[in-house]
Specification:
elongated; 5-stranded antiparallel beta sheet; Arc Repressor Mutant, subunit A; 9 helices; two-stranded antiparallel ribbon; Beta-Lactamase
Length: 244
């Protein structure tokens, strides 16, 4: 896992999971109380400073604690996290909700977006390569502390009107496909807008016959990725089955 030591990996994992749970910067004292790293708080602070120098953590403006960067969150999701497997009943439940609409693809996307939002409790989005956009669950943003800043919320909601933003993402996905089926993550500065720094988008591409595009969720950068990623993947798999 790159140049990280086993101890640094454990510390990074703990910082990310605490940040996802609390939405607050994580201090060395809090880590020392909750986790048994076998080192003193001063050593923890030193290791966290090294992780910051390497780009995995950043220092919070109004606190002595640290938060994961986009790089740190992506490393956690790809290397440290264990996705929660969907149960058979969950898969059947999703399919029963949306599969009746398979003969009208726009209606299918509309229902899939609603159901994905309901199950993740996040704002969901589906986009076609023709620029048709479907959104659901915008009100869920207001349940997250990151979106108490009205400017952050306004900028996030403005994405609904920006078909060019989504078409660029689709073009990038299909022009340079990933070697694996891992979902795509756009976190913080990936989104190209300072006010979207606290935000994250998790999405997967789908392709079946004439239909191609993306489906995913928009929320804070600190999402419960282990639960959201399997759901996003499953919805994309269902959409890819249409017409086969």
């Amino acid at each position: 896992m790159g140049d990280l030591t086993p101890r640094q990996i454990n510390i990074l994992k703990a910082v990310v999971e605490e940040f996802i749970e609390t939405a607050r910067p994580v201090g060395s004292e809090a880590l020392d109380k909750k986790y048994n790293f076998g080192v003193c708080p001063a050593t923890l602070r030193n290791e966290m400073a090294k992780l910051a120098q390497m780009g995995y953590l950043t220092k919070a403006h109004s606190s002595s604690g640290r938060m994961p960067t986009s790089m740190g969150l992506k490393f956690y999701v790809r290397e440290l996290m264990t996705p929660k497997k969907l149960s058979v009943s969950e898969e059947v439940g999703v399919k029963e909700k949306i599969w009746d609409f398979q003969h009208d693809f726009n209606a299918l996307l509309r229902e899939a977006t609603k159901e994905l939002s309901r199950r993740t409790k996040k704002m969901a989005v589906a986009v076609t390569s023709q620029g048709n956009l479907f959104f659901a669950g915008m009100a869920t943003l207001l349940e997250e502390p990151e979106f108490l800043d009205i400017d952050v919320t306004r900028t996030t909601l403005s994405l609904i009107d920006q078909s060019d933003f989504w078409l660029k993402i689709i073009d990038s996905v299909f022009s340079s496909p990933q070697e694996d089926d891992f979902p795509h993550l756009l976190i913080g500065h990936d989104l190209g807008e300072e006010l979207l720094e606290p935000c994250g988008i998790v999405f997967q591409d789908y392709e079946s016959g004439p239909y191609r595009g993306i489906i995913g969720v928009i929320g804070p950068a600190r999402q419960r990725y282990q639960e959201i990623i399997p759901l996003v993947n499953y919805f994309a798999q269902l959409l890819s089955q249409v017409g086969k």
